[in-house]
Amino acid sequence: MAILKRSCSCCGCDVKAGSIVVAVIWIILSLIGLGYNATSSTPAGKALLAVYVVSLGTHILLIIAVVKAIRPLLLTWVIITIICTVAALAIYIYVTDVDVKIINRLVANGPEQYIGGVFLFNALKTGLTLIWIYWGALLCMTVYGCLVVFSHYQNLRDEARGQGQPQMVPMGNQPYVAGNQTYIAGN
After folding, report:
1. Are residues 165 and 5 in contact, defined by beta-carbon separation less than 8 angstroms?
2. Which of 22, 26, 32, 74 could, after both became Cys, cross-link 153 (CB 3.0–4.6 A)?
3. Does the keyword Transmembrane helix apply (predicted)?
4. Burial status of residue 23 (CB atoms within 10 A of its CB: 0-12, 13-18, 19 or more)
5. How far apart are CA 89 and CA 101, in angstroms?
6. What is the pTM for the complete model shown?
7. For residue 177, is it within any domain?
8. Which domain covers residue 87, as residue numbers?
């Protein structure tokens, strides 16, 4: 039995369509991350670049897995996405540690002693705040995306066993739905 029956209660999408939406959103976020970290020369930036490259590949594979109903790729996406999220968490913890050490040094010596010290102090505090807001949003999207994709995986698994949840079929635009056959209308 699938964890979720629909990916979004407001739009009524099934988990198959929701899985494609999740993949598209993650592809966009991965491309933004690649663009942001493409010119980074810091070890953390290079590590994040590697995480975004791996995740971009898995999100593209997710679209293929959903369209072609390849169950093992769906489960692989869930696992690799969790691994990439944990790796990003470790990198953000490292960046936070480095920035906190710089902030402490600025506070101990007085930020006004450095050229641009006050600006650097405020920029580091703002940057840390934004990193952890981003991390919170990333965690929420990871959990929800994994639930949607895993629910689609469970539907495909149950369907293979003969007990699956039927996918939504829009009524009225199918050629063989009652009322759409021209040869029956005249009888």
Report:
1. yes
2. 74
3. yes
4. buried
5. 18
6. 0.73
7. no
8. 11-158
